[in-house]
Write a structure and sequence with these properties.
Length: 188
C-alpha cells in the first residue's frame, strides 16, 4: 500500500482516515508541512474552506502542497478540499492552491437542498456510490485537461486532472469505500 495522509487541520479527516484504513492503507494524520515528506498521496477533506485557509497560515502550506504536487504526489480533495484545489473560487472569492484547472462556486445548492444523499454513477467504479452533498460547491467551469468522472443534475461533481482528483461531495461518510480504494490504486 502506498504511504498516504489526510490533512488533519479541520473538517472530516477522521472519517477519511477510517475509509482509507478499511481499504488496507495506514493513513497518517497530517498537521505539519514536514509530515508531507515521503507521502504518495494526500486527502484534503471537507469542512469549511475559509477556516482551513486560516489554519493554513501558520505554516507555508501553499508552497509545500504545490511542491508536493510538483514532485509527483497525488491530491484528493473533497468538498472544501475541492474548493482549495481549484484555480478560481467564487461566492465569495477566496485564495486557493490552483492545482486544478477549474472554477468552483461555494455553497452552490441553495438553502433548501443544501444537504442531500444520492447514489452516483462514477465512470471508474463498477457500482453506484452512495455519497452526501453537504453545503456543497459546484464546478462552473473546467479546463480542457480536466476529465469528468461523475455528474449530478447536469453538473460535474467528480473530476480528475492528472494527479489531482476533486469531488464536490463527501464520499467518506456513507461507509462506501470504493472511491477511496480506486484512488489508492491510482497512486504510484
Ligand atoms: N461550504 C463549505 C465551504 O465553502 C464546504 C462544505 C463542505 O466541505 N462540506 O468551504
Amino acid at each position: 500500500m502506498p504511504p498516504v495522509g489526510v490533512l488533519a487541520l479541520q473538517g472530516d479527516y477522521d472519517a477519511h482516515a477510517k475509509a482509507l484504513a478499511r481499504c488496507g492503507a495506514a493513513p497518517l494524520e497530517i498537521r505539519r508541512v514536514a509530515q508531507l515528506d515521503g507521502l504518495a498521496g494526500l486527502v484534503i477533506p471537507g469542512g469549511e474552506s475559509s477556516t482551513l485557509l486560516n489554519l493554513m497560515r501558520d505554516e507555508p502550506w501553499f508552497e509545500a502542497l504545490r511542491a508536493f504536487h510538483a514532485r509527483g504526489a497525488s491530491l484528493f480533495g473533497t468538498c472544501a478540499g475541492a474548493i482549495l484545489l481549484s484555480r478560481e473560487v467564487r461566492h465569495p472569492a477566496q485564495e486557493s492552491l490552483a492545482l486544478l484547472d477549474a472554477t468552483i462556486e461555494r455553497n452552490a445548492y441553495g438553502r433548501q437542498v443544501d444537504s442531500f444523499e444520492t447514489d452516483l454513477a462514477v465512470s471508474v467504479l463498477a457500482a453506484p456510490l452512495g455519497v452526501a452533498f453537504i453545503r456543497a460547491p459546484r464546478f462552473v467551469q473546467l479546463g480542457a485537461g480536466v476529465e469528468v468522472l461523475a455528474a449530478h443534475a447536469d453538473a460535474p461533481v467528480l473530476v480528475r486532472e492528472g494527479r489531482v482528483v476533486a469531488a464536490t461531495f463527501h464520499p467518506e461518510i456513507t461507509g462506501a469505500d470504493d472511491l477511496h480504494a480506486w484512488w489508492l490504486g491510482t497512486l504510484a
